[in-house]
Amino acid sequence: MAGLIEMIINNPSLIQTIAKQVGIDTATAESIVRQLAPILMGGAKSNLQSDKDSGSLIKKIESDNYAEMFDKPEEAVKKKDLKEIGDDILADLTGSKENSREVAKHVEQETGVSSNIIKMILPMLAPMIIGALTKSTGEKSDLTEASGDTNSMTAILVELIDQDHDGSMIDDVMGMATKFIFS
Fold first, then answer.
1. Distance (Å, rounded) from C-alpha 4 to C-alpha 162?
2. Can you give the pLDDT of all 183 residues of the chain as single tens digits?
3. Are 133 and 44 in contact (CB under 8 A)?
4. Contacts of 33 (CB under 8 A, 6+ apart)
5. Radius of gyration of the chain (CA)
6. pTM, two decimal places
7. How far apart are CA 93 and CA 101, in angstroms?
8. How many angstroms separate the CA atoms of 51 and 36, rounded?
9. What is the spatial distance between Cα 122 and Cα 164, in angstroms, rounded to a whole number?
10. In whole angstroms, what is the distance from residue 75 CA to residue 163 CA?
11. Could you give the CA distance from residue 68 to residue 53 in angstroms, rounded to a whole number?
12. CA proximity to 55, closest of 151, 134, 125, 132
């Protein structure tokens, strides 16, 4: 998961685009993204490991649209439907609007930035999380898609996100959050 988080945080275009869209400086935007990225990645892992149907999330990850959004975030935010797309993805990553609000409150406490600003960032960041996962799966997703085996795609994604391979996302998310909070 560390590589995925770094991929997101080390995308200056993404950080600059978010900062510009919500009217904050890039250092604040980066701080918020450092908090949100591990939480949303953990939500992806939880979705993939749950008993509920993860097909919707897997289809999004297999789509090149999100990788393109990740590569060109400034163009993605110009699209009128980005908030709708982001809200749809947040449903997969956090489970509900209430959970998204709780994430925003948590990050507000950690960063001191208003949860209203964080709530504006969440739907912009969610497609970028999917884009990072899409780019990370690379050829593996093409092979899975060709075979039609969503179970192997799920295994690939869980492997990417579960950095210590213990099957638990909690310690990974908390470890990543702690690393980025205090770095």
1. 11
2. 567 888 898 999 999 999 999 999 999 999 999 999 999 988 888 888 877 766 788 888 887 788 988 999 988 888 767 888 999 999 889 888 899 999 999 999 999 999 999 999 999 999 999 998 888 877 454 434 444 444 545 555 555 555 454 544 444 444 444 343 333
3. yes
4. 8, 9, 14, 15, 18, 121, 125
5. 15
6. 0.76
7. 13
8. 24
9. 26
10. 31
11. 25
12. 151
> Could you tell me the two tokens for 16?
């600059």
Instruction: Give me the amino acid identity at 105.
Output: K
In angstroms, the CA 66 to CA 30 distance is: 20
Residues with Cβ within 8 Å of 142's Cβ and at least 6 positions away in sequence, in order, are none
H or E stretch covering 136: helix 115-147
Report the amino acid identity of residue 122.
L
Burial of 3 (0-12, 13-18, 19+ CB in 10 A): exposed
